[in-house]
Queue: 3 jobs
Job 1
Amino acid sequence: MKILSKLPCAAQLKEEIRLSQDAIGKKEQNDAEIAAILRGDCHRLLLIVGPCSADNPAAVLEYAVRLGKIARDVRERICMAVRVFTAKPRTISCGYMGLVHEDGGIQAARRLHLDVCEQTGLPTADELLYTATLPYFDDIVSYFVIGARSVENQEHRLVASGVAAPVGMKNPLSGDLRGMANAVAAARAPHSFIFGGHMVQSTGNPLAHGVLRGGITTPNYHAENLLAAHNLGLSTVIVDTNHANSGKNHVKQPEIAMDVLKSRRECPVIGGLVKGLMVESYIAEGAEQRGKQAFGQSITDPCLGLAATEELIYEIADSARKM
């Protein structure tokens, strides 16, 4: 392999691009609130919402600022985190692969997380596609996701056990819930392993949990799927309303969200299990087609537009009020 450039060391980048003291205090508050929801100590719903991939920093930031105004209206029922996914997994590793691969690289990705935190006060979420990037984001990102293509990888499971933030472990592409449950169990346990050129010891991550995103042949957000996850020993899950659950039909996300909330209301076990939802949303509806992209429109999976998202958020808040 040919070396293209050397990344700055994480400590150096954290010094150059760092949160203000006010933002640090807000992040600590956000982190505590998310942890309380995932532990079951808070009645609010966690909503992780935003673009499929953070392709255009200016558009992502504008989206987040507008989302922040909605978040303030529903804060008594919903704790909102912004999807700022800067590394995009690809099944055959072609096409857009995320902001960390573009001009500016890891610096641009960290700057975007900082800008969202500083300008909105909302926590950010990112996918931990490369475990080596964790030291560049561990002080600024409030929620990490291990994706369907990575969740069966031992390194991702072990690193998740040492992350001092919630980690959502998606079910594999097959839809296998046992693989997801095994990943969560591994992430919650202590381990000794090699990371960053060192032998390290983790204490286990009590905030690791499952994320149901559907499988190749069938969705897995229905009540029977949620009960199956509970029967595998999972105490906390988030439901992804897009991806294989919607068949990548983004307009089905509100329907799926309402179905899950109905299951929470009707079944105490599901009510205790499901702590939140994940929704793919951007400023403009849909996705780019043949090189024609509107500002704030996804260049990867289609997303709900912001107007439809706002309607959905208020509907979720109203449903949560009835719990």
Job 2
Amino acid sequence: MKKIGIVILILGLALTIFTAITFFTREKVVDIGSLKITANKPHHLSWSPLIGIAVMGVGGVMVLMSPKK
């Protein structure tokens, strides 16, 4: 359980630091016979850094509440 908590802490830190991702998809613009024109269409995915802080809190609680060996 402690290892899972550490992984969740790292995930929360990454969500706090990187608050947006941009990825591209190909979109067909023109398709006339053998002539095909495509364009890259950007998509933006963003979130609040507070989500990362909340995930770090959950991971911290998991680490602190794990049984001591």
Job 3
Amino acid sequence: MKKTLSILTVMLTVLIPCKLAAQDNVGNKAITGSWIGKIPAGGISLRVIFNLSLAGKDSLIATMDSPDQGVKGIKVGPVKFDGKELNIKAPLLLGEYNGTMKSDTLIEGTWKQAGKTFDLNLTRLVGLFTLNRPQEPKPPFPYTSEDVTFINDKFNITLAGTLTIPDGKGPFPAVIMITGSGAQNRNEELMGHKPFWVIADYLTRNGIAVLRYDDRGVGKSQGVYSTATTADLGTDAEAAFIYLKNNSLIDPQKIGLAGHSEGGMIAPMIAAQNKEVAFIVSIAGPGAKGEEILHRQNYDISKAAGVSEKDIQTGISTNKKLFSIIKQEKDNKIAEEKMTVAIKKILAKEKTTPEDSEKAMKQLQSQFGTLTSSWFRYFLTLDPSAYWKKVKCPVLILNGEKDLQVAADVNPPAIEKALISGKNNSYTTHVFPGLNHLFQHTKTGLPSEYGNIEETFSPDVLKVMADWIIHLENK
């Protein structure tokens, strides 16, 4: 959920290219170069880089990079610099940077975007900025990789992805990768990491074909992501299953689903009604109800970030009031009005200053689109156990002990309980010590660490996943 913090995976602000000419200024040579800083965004920190250069005699132009989002060369402007004060406008991003040059290596300032203001201090980069991702697969590859497309007939859209096929005659067992929440590409690219590519490479090297695809509206896939519910996204994964079932290199009796986070909720939704699904790999998949996941996620991340218990409980109490309105009021406009009244009452009761009240109201208004979206409304009342109870195929449950987004002490037991109630005892659970929501070794589990960790996906988890699927194949 690209909102406050994603429901099941980290949510990022989408950066949209802005094509505006820079304005002339004088004395600009001193500030040319690349400057890097971090913007806090819903529990994570996004690195941004402003690249300033001269055009003509002494006119500044700028581009902006967001390396954690895999975005480079965004054109922003106009740019103004008077020898001390720097201003970079980005109207299409609803953003603006204002800073003061303190030295030839430091600019102190703020980034404003969509009504919010963030501290953003910039330091001069020496050389090119690169992300070290040692697990990212590199050629030559001992398998075949094909760009493929398949059709979701229910929505009349074409989805695009990559199918990696082991060497040999086949037919091969296969896995369909299903991404977590938020519009993501086939590699589930996040914070400079490409976990689905790492997983696909490992599994395919071990004799298992893998299909990973761009979410609808992302990359080369058609459709609109912003209006889709979890159930709608499930039909995309169903279309992928139908496509693989008709591929001569794939064993139609051995096609499974591997879903990360929200994808781990979509997998049982499909398997509950499609008995041809051979197995499920739940990668930090939820077993608790949607609203319960949100409140627990809020608590765990806030606690790890040092927020006081009192403030955490106040925030959860406020969210419960807002969520109650959303569940009861189906009309978005009326729901927004009721939420506004509710927050004003809370602020008045707490005797909040006019300035802080204004900030709180702006923050609420910026979240209206998310809170009343079809996706959020659906997720809020979704109960995964209703689907897990109907799953009859083998299930591998994988979770990280330091996952602050899908808690390991709550969700795996909930999945196990639902499977047992449906008389399915064919499941294996692994909770890995020291791993976060992305299955990286971590200190705190906070999403703010994701981009700073070089590891993309724990090799131990990769091995468990491959060994389990191979064992099923050899039964």
